[in-house]
Amino acid sequence: MNASNKPVNQKAWFLILPVLVCVAFSAILPLMTVVNYSVQDIISPERRVFVGTEWFAAIMRDEELHGALWRQLKFSFAVLALEIPLGILLALSMPAQGWKSSLALVVVSLSLLIPWNVVGTIWQIFGRTDIGLMGAALQGMGIEYSYTGNALHAWLTVLLMDVWHWTPLVALLGYAGLRSIPDAYYQAASIDGASKFDVFRYVQLPKMRGVLMIAVLLRFMDSFMIYTEPFVLTGGGPGNSTTFLSQFLTQKAVGQFDLGPAAAFSLIYFLIILLMCFILYNWMQRVGTQTKEVGHA
Amino acid sequence: MHKPKFQKRSLFMLAYVVFALLPIYWMINMSFKTNNEIVAGFSLLPNHFTWDNYKTILSDVAWYSGYINSLIYVGINTVISLCVALPAAYAFSRYSFLGDKHVFFWLLTNRMTPPAVFLLPFFQLYTSVGLMDTHIAVALAHLLFNVPLAVWILEGFMSGIPREIDETAYIDGYTFPRFFIRIFIPLIKAGVGVAAFFCFMFSWVELLLARTLTSVNAKPIAATMTRTVSAAGMDWATLAAAGVLTIVPGAIVIWFVRNYIAKGFAMGRV
Q1: What does the pLDDT profile of chain A (297 residues) look like in tens digits?
Q2: CB contact under 8 A, A125 and B236
Q3: What are the beta bridge partners of residue A50?
Q4: The domain spanning residue A292 has which CATH number?
Q5: Which of A26, A109, A232 sits opposite B140 (nearest CB)?
Q6: Which terminal residue of chain A has fewer beta carbons within 10 Å of its beta carbon, N or C?
């Protein structure tokens, strides 16, 4: 959204009113409930004690949580570092027109359309050394592969699963962005004698900026909240090597029924995501404008 | 100089397609085997080809009602998402008003709430309004992450349409609703297609909320599948067949919107 020269019209509020009603119904009431939990010690539904910020203070010192947060950050960073370049490369490689492009679009999108627990199940079987293709293949190459026994293997399998599952999102958005570039840009570039890389750097990449921003933010948010797939695949193990934040949180909230601390934690969790998205959003907008200036110079 | 580059890219594309399809191939392969054969050992093709797993699913109410339930709430969700997101996206793309940027960012933040702890409040909220175990409940809950995304995508498409078109229509005597439905929506048909695809996709694959808000009457297919996993003795074959069938509706939807994605985004957020 760039509010360069749009007319001011306060009545526009009426147009966004339906959205506000819909989202507020599902957003504000649950959020308020969580805030309410976070300041109480809930011993039983009838017995609650107000404890103020005690849970927040306790959460901040929780060593296990620091571990989960650190694992989460590493995982999300790895996800972005792999999926964004791979997705861009894929978008550049997809055929531009004809039946091949239709086919490529359908094949690439398939993994996005599988329910998340099914994704976990597929990889659970796929990675087994006795009956799974990948597990058996790795075994055949002489690698002692075991996603249930080896922490590194488990982590890499979850990462590979995420790359398989979500790179298509980046590719689809990037592909759509690429198709929007008018031919005139490429002609101008070839007259200037631009190399392939120059075309990518000064024409394609800046033009994909908008869609890539959506892709980066979506991938960041969703990978930071990843739950179902690793839960089905590894159950957080071995040890706690693939216990990411949301699973840690669920163990607290559901497993130990510590609603107070879990609520306090989920608020902090939410604020972390918010802050990171805000930083990413602003950073990408700055990078984009600088690119444009270089492009003009 | 042009040629070899192109071939390198085709090669990469081919490699990716193989990578993308291998896990799916393995699931399809398993869905045509019997349980005994799956557990007995490794084979690239089913030795005793069977349709039984699919027959089980298509003849058992407990299984196929899951697909119907999922399709119903996903359909309701997609329609509501688009209906409320269209006018809002128009407002964001055409006018500036008090707090517009803040509202836009607030909408996006709704995609960032970690679900785990929010499940209980959701459960309480929908119980108190008497919507538990209905398709509407899941559809409404999924609005939380689909509406912001639909607004975001549609706003991009709408910003690509020159404002002169609106002004000309108003001069010609069109009222806003008539202009919006007759002229504007057909112009951003592609955007509507893309937004619909994303709404469909995210609602179809979501499990936690859908499972929490339903028990019997509106139980989604993904939840039906988790019950099989926890049952004594894994029914891998049926599970694989059910998994294959979950891909089908989505694959049909993507086939219909493929041209919109290919050409449509042309006017989109770029």
Answers
A1: 444 567 888 888 888 899 988 888 878 888 888 888 888 887 776 777 787 788 888 878 888 888 888 999 999 999 999 999 999 999 888 887 778 888 888 888 888 888 888 888 888 888 888 778 888 888 888 888 888 888 888 999 999 999 999 999 999 888 877 877 777 888 888 888 888 888 888 888 887 877 788 888 889 988 988 888 888 888 777 878 888 888 888 877 776 767 788 888 888 888 888 888 888 888 877 776 655 444 443
A2: yes
A3: A40
A4: 1.10.3720.10
A5: A26
A6: C
Distance from CA of A24 to the nearest CA of B (A): 8
CATH of B60-267, one of 1.10.3720.10, 3.30.390.50, 3.40.350.10, 3.40.50.720: 1.10.3720.10
Alpha-carbon distances of B79 from A16, A63, B87, rounded to whole Å:
16, 45, 13
Q: Residue type for A90, please?
A: L
> Which A positions 224-243 lie with beta carbon below 8 A of chain B?
225, 227-228, 232
Give me the total of CB pairs closer than 8 Å, taking one residue from chain A and one from chain B.
301
B87 to A15: CB separation less than 8 angstroms, yes or no: yes
Domain locations in chain B?
60-267
Q: Name beta bridge partners: A8.
A: B96
Q: Is A48 helix (H, G, I), strand (E, B) or coil?
A: strand
Q: What tokens does B151 get?
A: 């607004």
Is residue A74 included in any domain, yes or no? Answer: yes
- Which two three-digit tokens encode residue A1? 């959204």
Distance from CA of A16 to the nearest CA of B (A): 4
Substitution target from A2, A5, A15, A247 for chain B, most B beta carbons within 10 A:
A15
ipTM tops 0.85: no
Number of domains, chain A = 1
Q: Is residue A238 part of a domain?
A: yes
Task: Enter the pTM of the model.
Answer: 0.85
H-helix segments, A3-150: 12-38, 54-61, 63-93, 99-109, 116-126, 133-140
Residue A38 lies in a domain: no
> Does A151 map to a domain?
no
Supply B60's token pair: 């058992």
Domain span at residue A207? 46-114+158-296
Instruction: Using a CB–CB cutoff of 8 Å, tell me whether A277 touches chain B.
Output: yes
Partner residue opposite A274 with nearest CB, options B112, B225, B229 = B112
